[in-house]
Write a structure and sequence with these properties.
mainly alpha
Length: 112
């Protein structure tokens, strides 16, 4: 899924899918996703879109957060993200880890 598709389907003002579709697919409301996206962008430069060596845009922050949330919400294996989102396993794992680091103190409890 490219950035343009993702934006057109879920985030643009006249998006293809409704708020209810968004909630069902992302397992959260759109405003929660957008708050999470802002939070991770503020604390980590990893979530700002850059250009690769060939001057092509890298994965957008929306794409990175979407992949990490789908892995969490659905328990999707990392290697399936390459097939469905075109994102390598290492990028998926890095993204997942970066989001966990932002929220771990607030939402994750230690093991006893």
């Amino acid at each position: 899924m490219t950035h343009a598709n993702l934006m057109n389907n879920y985030f643009d003002p006249n998006s293809v899918y409704t708020e209810e579709d968004f909630r069902r697919r992302f397992r959260m409301r759109r405003h929660v996703f957008e708050r999470l996206l802002r939070d991770v962008q503020q604390v980590n430069l990893y979530f700002q879109q850059k250009r690769d060596r060939a001057c092509h845009p890298s994965f957008s922050p929306h794409q990175k957060v979407t992949v990490a949330l789908r892995m969490m919400a659905y328990g999707s294996p990392v290697d399936s993200m390459d097939e469905t989102h075109g994102m390598f396993e290492s990028t998926c794992l890095d993204t997942f880890e970066e989001i966990v680091q932002v929220y771990k103190d607030e939402y994750l409890r230690g093991l006893n």
